[in-house]
Design a protein that fits this description.
Oligomer: single chain
Largest sheet: 2 strands, antiparallel
Strand content: 5-15%
Number of strands: 6
Order of helices and strands: HHHHHHEEHHHEEHHHEEHH
Number of helices: 14
Radius of gyration: 21 Å
Structural class: mainly alpha
Amino acid sequence: MFDYETLKLFWWVLIGVLLIGFAVTDGFDMGIGALLPWIAKTDSERRVLINTVGPHWDGNQVWFITAGGALFAAWPLVYAIAFSSLYWALLLVLFALFFRPVGFEYRSKIENPMWRSFWDWGLFAGGAVPSLVFGVAFGNIFQGIPFEINELMQSSYHGSFWQLLNPFALLCGIISLSMLMMHGGLYAALRTEGSIHLRAKQAAQIAAGIAFVSFILAGFWVSTLNGYVLSPNFVPGAVQTPGSIEVIRETGAWFNLYDQQPLMWLLPAVTCALLGLLIFLSKSKASGWAFLCSSVAIAGIIMTAGFSLFPFVLPSSASPADSLTLWNAVSSEKTLGLMLVAAFIFVPIILCYTLWGYFKLWGKVTAEAIEQHPTGHY
């Protein structure tokens, strides 16, 4: 089996993979929810749009649940401190997500305009609010979360919900929201036809342009932030606990890994190129290739952020020495090893049944088919 340090790295990579899986799969149905009031003008069009993701949205959320469970098991300190420090923000996400299952299941059961309009806006909130808040959370991680850990390993948070809504974090929220709306628009373009197909492509192009500009702007902004770097005396193999490490804060430190490995600059560069390319592809009939570019671009954005933060997972602005890294915030070697075996078994199963579900239920969703079932389907 792998040694402890290798297991720590494996789980850093695996949690990143799960987050990318969630963003690429659940991301497009959240994006469609956020686009619902804007690209579907009639009740029939809204039903068409909802039915493109209706059979899959709950299966997609398995990636979200798996990522949360992996975070709890592999990085229990990160889970505990993040969920307590970002409590109100995550509670807002939870309340917004409540609209999704009820909205998908009950929205079309009653032919009442007010009833359906209410759930349309509920699905919009269930897609747009989490997409925005996830980006805001990442933006705050780059700036450091104001928490401390005492000698009893009890954490205390010194911020507020409104402090989370700072300019840089909101910019990251715009990146997250726009990239998922882009993804959702391209998926809708793949599954629909006619006027809704054209509006979905136009929305995806606008969202991709916003994501492109915001991503570049955020990169320049990060270069001016006080980043975190471990002391040169740090030894990864040594026993590490929060408070026992020496952390240095300096401007531009989040780009240290890129400066040490210049080839890594290809990652954000290729991501920007893909965002530009998919705009061109979406204007043609290559919607499938545009959607593929969107998926890879989303992975590139998340990987760019992850490599910038490496090896920090939850840096502390109140007490930098209490910052949580992939070295000092993990479970025991035995726990990581057993979980890795489970991951090698179950993650491919999840991937296979997800692909099988899309294969069996793929095809264009048309208004004619929807109108045959006015209160059925979604």
